[in-house]
Design a protein that fits this description.
The protein is of the alpha/beta class. 31% of the residues lie in helices and 31% in strands. The strands form two sheets. Strands 1-2-6-5-7-8-9-10 form an eight-stranded mixed β-sheet, sandwiched between helices. The protein has a two-stranded antiparallel sheet with strand order 3-4. The protein is globular and about 40 Å long. The model has no long low-confidence stretch (mean pLDDT 85).
Length: 194
């Protein structure tokens, strides 16, 4: 287990090395792309599912950092009554995670992505806004924070996977992501299931 500090708290990170090793270019070793994997409000309740996702992404040639961002507030699961209060601290932690990831050996700091599930996707959007090193987001049924939608930030290309029957995050959030991406000159690829 690796870690970094955010807001004077130790944040644990599970590291999954990319399969395939280092790229070579013009006589020098080049880093590989890397992604942050951000769990949802369930925290580590379904950690084995997140770990399977991390191993699958790593097998595709990307380093993966599964960030336990709730360490920042000492939570195991999100307390919904405090979500708005804690969201800025988690966002800062994800931004700190981007910096930490960019500094890792064998990582190409200009080819970073974030895979977020639900709350993790909302944090991905907020942390990636205006962060040029984050070159892609994969959003699994996560909302675009209202404050962000009104700002029209520069977001990286985004793949949105969302179910039409989601009772927690309405599918209208997908439309919001697409509108923000279009206004920013980037399109979102959207996959929707019943």
């Amino acid at each position: 287990m690796q870690s970094f500090t955010s807001g004077e708290q130790q944040i644990e990170v599970e590291w999954y090395s990319a399969s395939g090793g280092t790229r070579q270019g013009q006589g020098q070793s080049l880093g590989l792309p890397a992604v942050l994997l951000l769990h949802g409000a369930d925290g580590l309740t379904y950690a084995e599912g997140y770990r399977l996702a991390a191993r699958t992404i790593a097998a595709s040639g990307y380093h993966v950092a599964f960030v336990h961002y709730l360490d920042r507030t000492g939570d195991k699961r999100v307390a919904y009554a405090r979500i708005r209060q804690d969201f800025p601290r988690w966002t800062t932690t994800v931004r700190d995670a981007v910096n930490w990831l960019a500094d890792q050996p064998d990582v190409d700091a200009q080819r970073l992505g974030i895979v977020g599930l639900s709350l993790g996707a909302a944090l991905a959007f907020t942390a990636a806004a205006g962060e040029p090193r984050v070159r892609a987001i994969v959003d699994y049924f996560g909302p675009l924070p209202d404050e962000l939608a009104g700002q029209c930030p520069r977001l990286p290309p985004t793949l949105v996977l969302h179910g039409a029957s989601d009772r927690i995050v309405p599918v209208s959030q997908v439309v919001s992501v697409n509108e923000v991406e279009i206004r920013g000159g980037v399109g979102a690829a959207i996959g929707q299931a019943a």
